[in-house]
Amino acid sequence: MSEKCLVTGAAGFIGSHLVDALLARGDSVVGVDNLKLGTRKNLAVALGNSRFTFHEADVNDVPRLNEIVEKESASSRFTVAWHLAANSDIRAGVTDSDVDLRDTFLTTHNLLKVMREQKIPRLAFASTSAIYGVLPGAMREDAGPLHPISNYGAMKLASEAAISAALEAFLERVWIFRFPNVVGGRATHGAIYDFVHKLLKNPAELEVLGDGSQEKPYFHVADLIEAMLFITGRTEERLNFFNIGTADNVTSVRQLAEAVVKRQSPGATIQYGTGNKGWVGDVPKFNYSIEKLKKLGWKPRLTSNQAVDRSVDEIVREVTGR
Ligand SMILES: NC(=O)c1ccc[n+]([C@@H]2O[C@H](COP(=O)([O-])OP(=O)(O)OC[C@H]3O[C@@H](n4cnc5c(N)ncnc54)[C@H](O)[C@@H]3O)[C@@H](O)[C@H]2O)c1
Q1: Best mutation site among 6, 8, 14, 150 for ligand 1 pocket (most ligand atoms within 8 Å of CB)
Q2: Cβ–Cβ under 8 Å, residues 132 and 144
Q3: Partners of 7 in the beta sheet?
Q4: Are 61 and 38 in contact (CB under 8 A)?
Q5: What does the pLDDT look like over 89-114, one tens digit per residue?
Q6: N or C: which end of the chain has fewer CB within 10 A?
Q7: Residue 214: pLDDT over 80
C-alpha cells in the first residue's frame, strides 16, 4: 500500500535520495526544508514528479508547518513523517551549542507538536552513531548509559527520548535509525566533500585535520535508503531502533585523502596534522554493531572501502564536472 509521507530535510543529501526512493515505490511525498544546507538542485528529479510537492520552510516555524500539513492533508491524510532535518555540521555545533539545540533538537520537538495536532501516526527518525560517544565495547543498540561527546550527539539522543515520550502519548509507531558516516553523491558536508573542495582551491596540496589514522565505517547512501525502507516494511514493534551501516571494514582518513587525490588531482601532496581526533566531538575509532539488522535479514552491499571509492567518484564528478 502506498504511503503519504512528510519528509523534513528533504533537500539535503540523504533527504533528497530518500524522496527519490519513496517516489519510485509509488508513495506521495511532501518535502520541507529551509534550504540552509540543502539545495533545490538535489530535488531536480523529484520536482518533475506529480506526486511530489516541496515547501521551503523552517520546521521550527510551527504555525507555518501546521498550515503546510493541513493544506497537504486535504486530499489524503499523512501516514508517516520522515524526520531528517537537523544540523549536520557537527563542528558548527561544537563552537555554538545553539545550532544543535535549534536545528537538531527543537526541530524534533516542534515536528512532534505538529504531528500530534495533525494526527500523523508514525515517525521515522534519522538518529546517529554519535549518540554512543566513546564506548569501551561495541556500539550496540542496547548499550548504555550513553554519554555523547558532541552537542550534535547529545541533541540526537534527547530527540530519541522526546520521540519515546511521544510514542507513549500519541504516536502509533516509531522507527529510529542510528547511522554512521554516510557518503555518496549530493553530499552537503563530510570529509570527502571537504577534501574535494580543498583540492579545487589548491590542486597541488591537500591539508588534512589530524594524523590521518582516524578510522570509521563509511556507508553508501544507496545502501542506507534501502535499509531504512527494508526495516520499515519488516518490523511490527511500536518502537523500533536499529544501527544501520557496514560492519565489514573501516576506512582511515588517510585512505580517504589518498582516494580523493588519486581521482581528482593525482600528484598533489597530502599534509597531515597531529593527533587522532579531527575536531572536538569527533569519535576517533569505533566498533559499530549491525547484528540486529543482519538478524532482520538485511546486509549491506558495499564495504566501507567500496562505499568510499564510489562516493569519491560521484562527488568529484558532481563538483568538478569530470
Ligand atoms: N550524513 C551522515 O553521515 C549522517 C549520519 C548520521 C545521521 N545523519 C542524519 O541524517 C539526516 C540527514 O543528514 P544529511 O547528511 O542529509 O545532512 P544535510 O545537511 O544534507 O540534510 C539536512 C537538511 O535539513 C535541513 N534543515 C536543517 N535545519 C532545518 C530546519 N530548522 N528546518 C528545515 N530544514 C532544516 C537542511 O537545510 C538540510 O537540507 C540528519 O538528521 C542527520 O543528522 C546523517
Answers
A1: 14
A2: no
A3: 31, 82
A4: no
A5: 888 888 899 999 999 999 999 999 99
A6: N
A7: yes
